Amino acid sequence: MLERFAALTTAHVADACVRAGVPVRTVSLTAVVGERVAGRVLPAQHVGSVDVFLEAFESAAAGDVLVVDNGGRRDEACVGDLVALEAAAAGIAGIVIWGLHRDTVDITAIGMPVFSLGALPTGPLRLDPQPDDALSKATIGEWTVTRDDVVLADEDGAIFVPADRVEDLFGLAESIRDTEHRQADEIRAGRSLREQVRFAEFLTARAADPSLTFRQHLRAVRGAIEE
């Protein structure tokens, strides 16, 4: 999966979701280490202790991505170097955190791909009760994800897609990528995007039919750049 995703971006996959009618579940995250990661979601709800991560690793499969739900908290870091090191030893492909990390220098040295909302020296100063579903789902932003989902992350953030739709979405994303690359090459060669998508025709047609949208026009001329 990571090899195929290497030639795509999360933006391509997001556009593919729009075209396929799949909910676009994206969040803005920063890459701490590594440029991208792809794998099945291994959810874990953090409540103040690393034991939830260690328990998640007990049932992990090689290539899973630990997806940490820390409620987007900005007052504590929930993942540090020991968790990253243990994750690597367990065959985890990367860590995606809806919260903060710490030990940036050590995590960088480990080389485990990590995406988070940022860094903070302070670790957890609390210990809350662990929910019964702490290892079966995670809430990231406005989205709830499970082991039936795949997470893809790169420099633009992360996107979650149903595992059973990955192949279809990758195919659509590759088509969108190829179209955009052709359009970019033509712009560099001197043929404007307006010319490529026959924008003047769109303006004329919209004047005659105000209900016509640009996306409808793009589909008609096979120049989809927005989806």
From TrEMBL:
Keywords: Magnesium, Metal-binding. The keyword Magnesium applies. The keyword Magnesium applies. Substrate binds at residues 80-83, 102. Pfam families: RraA-like (PF03737). GO terms for molecular function: 4-hydroxy-4-methyl-2-oxoglutarate aldolase activity; metal ion binding; oxaloacetate decarboxylase activity. It comes from the Bacteria. It is an enzyme of class 4 (lyase). Signal peptide: none annotated. Mg(2+) binds at residue 103. PANTHER family: 4-HYDROXY-4-METHYL-2-OXOGLUTARATE ALDOLASE 3-RELATED. Homotrimer. Catalyzes the aldol cleavage of 4-hydroxy-4-methyl-2-oxoglutarate (HMG) into 2 molecules of pyruvate. Also contains a secondary oxaloacetate (OAA) decarboxylase activity due to the common pyruvate enolate transition state formed following C-C bond cleavage in the retro-aldol and decarboxylation reactions. This is Putative 4-hydroxy-4-methyl-2-oxoglutarate aldolase.
